[in-house]
Amino acid sequence: MIDPRFAAVADLLDRFVEEDPAYAGQLCVYLDGAPVLDLAVGQDHAPQAGGFGADDEPPALRREALTGVFSCSKGAGAVVMGLLVQDGVLDLDARVAEYWPEYAAAGKEATTVRQALSHQAGALGVPGGFSLAEYNESERAAAQLAAAPPAWRPGITHAYHGLTIGVLMEELVRRTTGESLQQVYEDRVRSPYGIDFYLGLPEAEEFRYRNVLKPAAAPLPFIDPFGYTGLAFNSTGVFEREDGTAGELLDLPNHRAVRAGGHSSAGGVANARGLARLYAVTSTGVVDDAGSRTEPLFSAETTRLMTEDQVFGADRASGELTAFGIGFMKPAPQNSFGSVWAYGHNGANGSFGWADPAYGLAFGYVPLRGEDNGNLSRNGILGAAVRQARLAATVPRA
């Protein structure tokens, strides 16, 4: 569906297909709780196992199709953390060790929840990395992380905890609720609001899953396995493919075990509709079948606590200028996805979900083939076009 006010954004998607016949992507945008764009374009011309089946090759990337969304999963995890803050179960200024006593080791005794959930904890990983099984059963990874020294004195700098922030979130949820983060997300967020974004894809939904494909042109960038970024992305560990060969980060959601486990750093499975709806549910509420809009899942105070900037500056690992709230990315110069009130998270394959509650927007984009992130990427170009269309739309705000 295309709201005429956002037709120029739909034209951009068509242009992507004209420029690259192998392109396939999904885009969904909500405005004030109602969808104004919900599109899927392009085809996948590469034969692959799984997905919709050999008799449907080459399949169109339907709006209902699901694929891996990598670190967009952190946004879903952050929603759960926000609910625990809203409930009074989790205090951002408490020490992590108050909930998780084993964490008070090797220089991490004073680390706060706020630091841990805004990439300031220095808990990037452990020597030798983690196995895929340890990420899928993250209490095992959490025990190792609790015993390990931080990469810096917590709170003095920040660097993207690419995979371990999910371990931190999941262990805090276990320690405060007795349940898994995935179960809380399912019971309180995904299922009640019909969100097509899973942290733990049920077997019954497997027929909708499409394998993430590698970028068509450039190889993945080299990461020094011994450096800060290497530690954050488990480069000294081995993610095995299902055939036993060494895998890469973009392989992760193509493992059924990863999709089923739904690790909140990188194991989520969604479509663009699911990403946009998650952010609409938290920020504006969504319009139901009767035409009424639900209350936002986050209160105004929770939104402030979770989405105000905690850190901004050069990432200790990459050197890039980045900004984070509690679990959520915030706009930064190379990734300027909205106003100062915007929050969201992108993924390693170029997927992105965000909300800008000041302007009533919620955005979801998912490509089938791996892409870049940033202002000049497809998700950046589309996001800018959405904001321009919103600026031009003369819609009274409720």
UniProtKB/TrEMBL annotation:
UniProt domain Beta-lactamase-related: residue ranges: 14-366
Pfam families: Beta-lactamase
Entry protein name: CubicO group peptidase (Beta-lactamase class C family)
